[in-house]
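TA notes, week 10

Several of you asked for a full example with nothing omitted. So below is the full record: structure tokens for the whole chain, then the designed sequence directly under it. When grading your own attempts, check the secondary structure regions first.
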């Protein structure tokens, strides 16, 4: 069906058209060019009225409105359409931009399921459906899950816009494909994830496996407490690491060091306090008898590692340990397959894995060194060779390390209004055009722009909502206050009852 006509000056990359109805930004259309069908994306859309242009006062506006209403030719729907390439080539996965611009007068046609289905919803078990095209809502939007593992992914949006929902959706699909996913859950967002093959656990840190500076972070010694740092360094000997009772043995060494080294008695006693404190507060997480924490991760499962109880520094120490080890496991696995000898016999993860880091701006920050950033960059650089994908999730893209962000081959970007966040994304993603970028502030919850390796073409989609997710929605403060008030009344009544009963008993 013809919905418009190319007007004005055409270019090989864009045309202007008059349309018969208002077209939505993000809608796909067909340009019926002389050389074959071309797929276009509406990038700008404007409506004007002849009668209501240059109106000088209210009375004139009211009169002009009446004129506009009876004149069927009054409205003017003008659109700018970006050219994405010849349709038949796009359907085969190739982008070919026409050498000659479409002639003015060329018809603009509505895109049909037949036109778009093969591009946005290709067949194959690596293509999973994650929603519908936002403006052509009869068309399924699929992503190539292989590319998440091989080329990494960033999910970026303001808070509450649907990042964790998308992660949950991906997790559900990975589970049905027997894949291995490791999610570091900083806010208990995935506690209730309804996935058949879920392995939910507390992230563990085995202090025996940490070097002294990392253990110092975990037990929260101050970074500039040089003397305390030295006490720990000197006390964490190989024999302590192998001792049956790690903590007692460490404390013995600390005590001895304090007694035998001049000027260190106070520092040693501070370190002892810190160790006691950490043992008490983090007994669930800091476990010298848990073996290798990586052994808790199961292959072929969605592994949710709860790091909510950890402080930022602890989570950083834990995360960097996991990333380093996971990369090593995958390297050994790939080397073994290639017949190269390995020094670690018990490597896990025979097949590729993907690691999801929420709050990426905290753990992989711009302009600051963290161990997680070091290992995340390494995974981003080497992951493709060794089958370990990294997915960074953040509501503050401007604070993520730009090097790591630019290594993410695919992006899902939801609503973002801050200019500096948008600029950071634009510089990390070449395929994000200015016009698409300008759409970011007008997206609604669950709407996303998908670009990069995991889609055939940049697309604006509405992501399916994972209904079984119980967390993530905003708290309803008013209703909870109301409940608390009721509880108070019940408590008061009960107390009064008890008092009266007591009086009666007296
Ligand atoms: N695709 C969607 N369709 C409809 N509603 C959605 C969609 N995605 C998310 N929501 C709604 O928005 C709420 C917040 O989503 P979600 O927890 O995924 O946001 P978030 O970006 O991860 O937030 P935060 O930055 O706080 O982690 C969900 O509870 C859900 O109700
Ligand atoms: Mg979230």
């Amino acid at each position: 069906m013809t919905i418009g006509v190319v007007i004005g000056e055409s270019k090989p990359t864009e045309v202007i058209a008059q349309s018969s109805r208002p077209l939505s930004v993000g809608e796909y259309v067909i340009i019926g060019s002389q050389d074959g069908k071309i797929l276009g994306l509406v990038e700008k859309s404007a409506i004007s009225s002849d009668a209501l242009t240059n109106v000088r006062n209210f009375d004139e506006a009211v009169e002009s409105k009446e004129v506009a209403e009876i004149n069927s030719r009054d409205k003017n729907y003008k659109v700018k359409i970006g050219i994405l390439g010849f349709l038949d080539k796009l359907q085969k996965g190739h982008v070919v931009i026409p050498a000659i611009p479409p002639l003015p007068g060329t018809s603009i046609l509505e895109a049909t399921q037949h036109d778009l289905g093969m591009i946005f919803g290709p067949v194959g078990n690596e293509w999973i459906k994650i929603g519908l095209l936002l403006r052509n809502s009869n068309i399924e939007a699929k992503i190539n899950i292989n590319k998440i593992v091989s080329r990494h992914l960033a999910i970026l949006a303001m808070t509450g816009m649907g990042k964790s929902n998308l992660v949950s959706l991906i997790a559900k699909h990975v589970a049905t494909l027997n894949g291995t996913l490791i999610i570091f859950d900083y806010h208990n967002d995935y506690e209730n994830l309804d996935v058949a093959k879920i392995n939910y656990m507390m992230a563990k840190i085995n202090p025996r496996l940490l070097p002294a500076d990392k253990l110092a972070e975990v037990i929260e010694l101050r970074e500039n407490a040089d003397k305390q740092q030295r006490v720990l360094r000197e006390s964490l000997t190989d024999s302590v690491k192998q001792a049956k009772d790690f903590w007692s043995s460490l404390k013995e060494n600390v005590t001895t060091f304090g007694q035998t080294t001049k000027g260190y008695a106070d520092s040693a006693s501070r370190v002892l306090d810190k160790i006691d404190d950490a043992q008490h507060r983090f007994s669930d997480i800091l476990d010298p008898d848990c073996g290798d924490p990586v052994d808790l991760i199961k292959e072929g499962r969605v592994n949710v590692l709860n790091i909510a109880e950890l402080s930022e520094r602890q989570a950083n120490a834990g995360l960097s340990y996991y990333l380093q080890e996971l990369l090593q496991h995958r390297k050994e696995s790939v080397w073994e397959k290639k017949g190269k000898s390995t020094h670690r016999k018990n490597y896990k993860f025979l097949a590729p894995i993907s690691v999801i880091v929420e709050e990426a701006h905290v753990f992989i920050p711009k302009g600051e060194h963290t161990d997680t950033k070091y290992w995340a960059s390494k995974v981003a650089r080497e992951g493709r060779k060794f089958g370990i994908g990294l997915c960074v999730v953040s509501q503050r893209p401007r604070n993520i390390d730009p090097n790591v962000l630019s290594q993410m081959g695919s992006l899902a970007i939801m609503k973002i209004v801050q200019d500096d966040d948008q600029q950071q994304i634009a510089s990390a993603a070449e395929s994000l055009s200015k016009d698409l970028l300008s759409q970011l502030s007008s997206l609604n919850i669950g709407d996303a722009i998908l670009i990069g390796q995991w889609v055939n073409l940049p697309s604006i989609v509405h992501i399916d909502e994972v209904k079984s997710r119980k967390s993530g929605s905003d708290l309803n403060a008013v209703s909870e206050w109301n409940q608390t008030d009721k509880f108070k009344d019940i408590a008061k009544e009960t107390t009064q009852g008890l008092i009266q009963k007591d009086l009666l008993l007296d």
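Residues 477-505 form the longest helix (29 residues). Use that as a sanity check on your answer.
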